[in-house]
Amino acid sequence: MVLYEDDQSLSPVATVNAANKLIKSDKIDCGITMIVEESRPIAPIFNKNKIPLLVLWDSNEFIRSAGEYIFSNGFSTEKAGILMAQFAYNNLKIKNIAVVKHVDPWAEIISKSFKQEFERLGGNVIYEQSVSPSEKDYRKIITDLKKKKPEGIYFALVPPNSALFLIQARQMGLSSIFLTGDAFIPDVITAAGSASEGVFFTNIYTEKKEASEIKELYKNKFGNEPVRCYYSIFRV
Fold first, then answer.
1. Residue 64 half-sphere exposure, CB side, CA atoms within 13 Å?
2. What is the per-residue pLDDT across 97-138, written as a single tens digit (0 to 9) for each?
3. Hey, which residues does 54 pair with through a beta bridge?
4. Rounded to two decimals, what is the model's pTM?
5. Among 85, 105, 82, 89, residue whose Cα is nearest residue 183
6. Rounded to an integer, what is the distance from CA 42 to the centroid of its chain?
7. 205 pLDDT exceeds 60?
8. What pLDDT sits at residue 219?
9. Are the C-beta atoms of 158 and 133 separated by less than 8 Å?
10. What angle (nearest 5°) sits at the alpha carbon of residue 119, between those of residues 76 and 151?
11. Domains of the chain by range and CATH?
12. How far is CA 69 from CA 14, 16, 55, in A?
């Protein structure tokens, strides 16, 4: 039997309440969740009760060190940031960049790995700003960015308000190259409309050796090849 609880759009309080109900009242044998935002507040609860928790989408250092009962079969958050930093520096020839990120577990992890790799390669992060995921007015940040004139902007922003950042940036004439991660989902692209044109983003990460194995398993199961098995850079 599978039991479901609602995290109410990644609310930590709702997620914790759901975990406690499933463990204490429903007596579950294991838990399944999707991303690091959901797993971070409930990992201590599953560890304390010695109940396994499987994270399906994200894999990162937090999840790896979250406790012996926390597992993941997901994609590397850190390597996504590293890959984009390498692409920005080596392929796009960007040497100075700004980082705008939400106060959010995924955003903090991926922007940190991007920044560290970009600086390791010799690039400069000339501006960095954190903002609440609920913020809808980015004009002050955009004004600051226009003054700094970065060649590129890495925006680690989660849906849905990430679309507002792009729309406002385009309206205010911010002409830098925009780069981001796998939270740049189709819903955001649709909401941003023409403001999303030209944005570079990374998709899910799997090592190429592992990807070939996944590809064969997928073909055997579904009879056709998957669209993409390993991290690539996409442009809208």
1. 8
2. 999 999 999 999 999 999 999 999 999 999 999 999 999 999
3. 32, 71
4. 0.79
5. 105
6. 19
7. no
8. 78
9. yes
10. 100
11. 12-73 (no CATH), 77-202 (3.40.50.2300)
12. 21, 16, 11
